[in-house]
Structures are given as structure tokens and as C-alpha cells.
Give the backbone structure.
Amino acid sequence: MNFYIVSLIKIALVFAIFMTTLAYLQWVERKVLAHIQSRTGPLRVGPHGLMQPLADVFKLLTKEDLLPPYVSRFFYLLAPFIAVSLALIAISIIPFGPEIDVFGYRTYMQISDVNVGILFILAIAAVSVYGVALAGWSSNNKYSLLGGLRSSAQMISYELPFTLVIVSPLLLANHLSLRSIVDSQAGYYLGFIPRWSIFQIPFPQIFAFIIFMIAGFAETNRVPFDLPEAENELVAGFHTEYSSMKFACFFMAEYANMVTITCIATTLFLGGWHPLFPAPYSNWIAPLVFFVAAILCFIAGVQNVRKRDRYTFPVFGIAFLILAAIFAVPLFWQVTMPIFWFCAKVGFLLFTYIWVRGTLPRFRYDQLMKFAWTFLFPCALINLLLTALFVAVF
Amino acid sequence: MDTVLFIIFAVVAIVCAFNLVLQKHPISSALSLIGVMGSLAVLYLLLGAEFIAMAQMIVYGGAVMVLFVFVIMLLNAGSEKASSKSWFAQLAGLPLLCAFVAVLGFFVRAAMPVLRGVRFGTWVGGTAERIGQVLFTQYLLPFEVISILILIAILGAVVLARKEID
Amino acid sequence: MLPPVPLSWYLVLSVILFALGVAGFLYRKSVITVFMSIELMLNAVNLSFVSFSYELKRVDGHIYSFFVMVVAAAEAAVGLAIILTVFKNRGTLQIDEVDSMKL
């Protein structure tokens, strides 16, 4: 009985945090893109536009729910549902931390550990094409159909390098369960080089990591591979005909996929929750980071440009100070440290996604295919062969 | 728990299979087939075949059926036209089908030995580790042969589907 | 607490799915749907392989169904290429309209 209650609590926690992350990821993306392009981004709703996600949700909810007369109704309604539910399922097997002790009850910071975890992820990734393909087909619209076709072809093509590079860290870890994969990356070489997959002897997976990230961009339909929704050629691609909540579903699915891909990259290549350097020192990084953030906030509050920053920045500073205090209590370290390191890695990778979106132009469709088949696929294959060779010899 | 799961997913599989046969539009049939494959994957899990369940979703659900859906979308295949049936099929079809099912049912009942119940978790032999071991020792030759077969199939598909050069 | 499902139910399910596959194969007129019915039959056989594997507590059934999957994937690649070619040459997907070999 205990097991079910604890599982329910874990699911509720993860779901709440995940949804908030999705909402605010969009805010972060708009802010970062704006600053890359020397703009300020959302600023009106709440301090620094922090209430913007809430406003967006209200806007999407209250919009007219349009059902065009020419669509094939069943599939048209099914497609966003498939997209969003598959995107949200994958988070359930991501390990966020080691086994912890909550009031005497030992549990893992993971909803459930599947023996064939990584295969489960691949299965979800393989099936999630249908959301986009069906949306494109059922809209009965040339642009949508082209978007759907492009996306299925693109996802099939990029699934090959994606799967092949996932195999090589598995050769080092010798496990399919995500928890065991992370466990196999614990420890340090020479006392300071972490044994993450990208550093691991005998064959560091740094190339695999890069290929994984590139294929991940294509799998999640992000710039520079967002051909299915290229707005200058296809209006909005597969979701041209969608409005209000159904559009929000696709939008949410895209961000959820992004978060999942970065979580998997962290788990497979960046050592999951294991810190960058050994424990007694690394534990002080988190409070230090938040403390510096607090100081910066206070400084910004004193030299304010706008009137209301005089109040907002100190409030944020105090919030950061409280966070620093929480992260500095050794009693909470068993929970806070894994979370901090995991979130730091995922956050960095998500920032990379946004950064790339602000930097690179879109590929042409034939370039995209050529890149997948003539460059990425052979690279992944060679990487796999070398890894297998090194693992077999040493 | 596993009884409930079995009943739910068996019913889903049968309904989806009926839908496959009865739907007029190929894409509805394709979706129904994906439904069958998904529910079969769950049944595989109940039978302790976790690797096969995931392979089912990756290979069938992810690769084969995506190809089907892709081709249906590419050819813009419409609903199929109803063709005229022969008078014999119209007249004798249903009685013959019933007779066939009755005979089949009789033999199934007579020949089926009393089999043990399936309890989830009593046998967990279908792990990736175990399958890999057997596949690369006992079944090594079939494995190699099948990889050659799939290579030939890829070449054949490329040759068949390329543009005519003339 | 419900009694466990006997293994024969799995086999009966497999029979039903196979029969439906045969029915679809005979009844449908679109090449793609006929092809999908074949996939359904293969799936039904896979289910019986896996159930027998459970009964015998051996992993061989899994290996066979794995091979069936691989062959099905190869078959789908070639078959769909053939369907594409047929469509290019004839402009139809109806099985009874592709009859130039008929006397």
C-alpha cells in the first residue's frame, strides 16, 4: 500500500514540476532569444514578464475552438492528443536522483525504473511521429500534408543516428535501465575527472554526445531542423489548421520533447545527478551560485534603470538568498544536491537549444536529408564500431 | 490485476482488428493496426517478454507502420471502392463462415490441454540480457542470415523506388 | 482477486487475430490494406510464439518472434516499394484493377 501512495506522490510532484517547467521554458526561450537579438522580450505581464506563461495559457484557453469543416474529424482531434500524451509519458522513467530516505521510507527519485528503460524511450520516440503525421494528413490542407510528410521522413531518417549513438554509451554501462546507467557513471578518475560517459575510458563518448544532440534537434523539430513547420514555405506546417487548446497541445508536446531529450542526454552522457567534482567541495557550489545571484540582484536593484526594479530585484535577491540557505543545509543535501546537479545540466542543455535557435538559420530540405544519411549516420556507425572495439579490447 | 489488463487489451486488440477489416479508408486501417500492435505489446509484457514488447513498439509501431502511413499519405490513397461480390459469396458466405468457426471451436476445445494460468512476474526470462545471450550463441547463424536478408531487402527497396533514368 | 488468465486464452486471442487477418486479406481490395492484413497475421503468430515461450519457460519463442519482426520489416520495405512502383505505372491501388496478366 505504501508503495502506491509514495508513487502517487512522486507522480504528482514530477507532473507539477514538469508542467511549470514547460510553461516557464517558453518564457525563458522568449527572453533569451530577445536578448540574443538585442530586444527585451516579454516585460508587461508581471515583473519582467514573469506572469506571461499564465497570460498565454488564459489566452489559449479562451480562444475560439475552431473545427474546420473539411478536416477528417476523428484523426484531427486524435492527433494533438497523441502528440501531447506521448511527449509527457517519457518523463516517467527519468531518474532525477539516487535512493533517498524520507522520514524513514527509502525510495528512489524516479517515478519508476524500467528494466528496458532506454528501449522504452526509443519506443516512445518512434511512436510520437504519428501525432505530427496524422495532424498533417487529417487537416486536408496541402501545406499541412507537406509538413506531415516532411516530419515523418525526417524523424525516420534521424532515428537511425539517434539509436546508434544511444547504443555506444550502453556498451560502456552494460545496462538498459536508466538508473543503472547513471550508477555506472559514478566516481572519478584521479580524484577529479568525473566518470561520465563523455569522459569515460576506454572510449570517451564526446562524439556520440554531439551526434545525439544534433539528432535530438531533428527529433524535436527544432531550429535548424524545423522543416515540418517552416513558416516561410508551409505557413505553419502540420499545425496550420489548429487553434486554441489543440494548438497548445502541439506547442506543449514540442517543449516536453525538448525537456525529455535533454534529460536523456544528461542521463546517458553527462552522468545524471553526479556532480562535476567530488562530494565535499561540490556541495558548496549550489549555495555559492545562488548567493552570487542574490548579490547580483541586490546590485541591480540599487542601480535600477526603471522605477519598479527598485522593488522587484531585491525580492528576487531575497528569494535567491533563501534558496542558498536551503541548499547550504547539510541535512537536505541528499535531496537537494542531486536535484541541483541534474537541473543544472538539463538547464545548460536547454539553454543550448535556445541558443542554437537564436543563432543558426534553417536547413533546406534536401540538405537536411543529405546531412542525416551521408554524414550523421556514418559518423554514428564509426563511433559505435570504435566504442565496441575499445570495449572489447580493454 | 493481470486478468483485468489481459481482458482490456485483448478486447482492444480484437476491436482494432475488426476495425482494420471493416474500415474503408487505408489510414483508419493503419491506425487500427497500430492499436493492435500496442495492445499486443502490453500482452507481451504480461507474458514476461519485455524486450520483445519494446522491439514490437520500435520495429512495428515505429518503423513498419510509419512507412505504411507515409506511403498512404504520399500516394494520397482514398477510400476503396466496393466491388461487386459473386452470387456464391453472397449466398453461402455467412453459413460457411459459421460452420468453419464451429468446427474450429470444437477442435480448439478438444485439443487444448489444461494450461497453467499466466501470472505476471513468475517468469522474467525475456530480459534483453538473456535474449542477447541466446541470440549470439545458439542462434548466431540465423541471426547472420537474417542480417544479410535485411540488407538485400534494403537494396531491393532502393532499386524499386528510385527514379527511372532514361 | 480474480483468477489468473489461462494461457489458452492468449492462444485463442492469437487465433482470432489470425482469422481476422485472413479475412482482411481476402475481403479487402486496397493493396495497402491487404498488406496490413498480412502484418496482422504475423503479429498473431508472434503472440502465440511468446505465449508458448512462457509456457515452456524458454527464450526461444522470443527469438523466433524477433526474427519474424525483422522479416516483417524487410518485407514492408520491399512491399511498399513495389506498391509505389505499381501506383506509378497504373495509377491505382485497387487489387482487381491490376489485372493485365489475366487472360
The two ends of chain A are 47 Å apart (CA to CA). The longest helix of chain A spans residues 2-36. Chain A has a mean pLDDT of 82. Chain A has 15 helices and four strands.
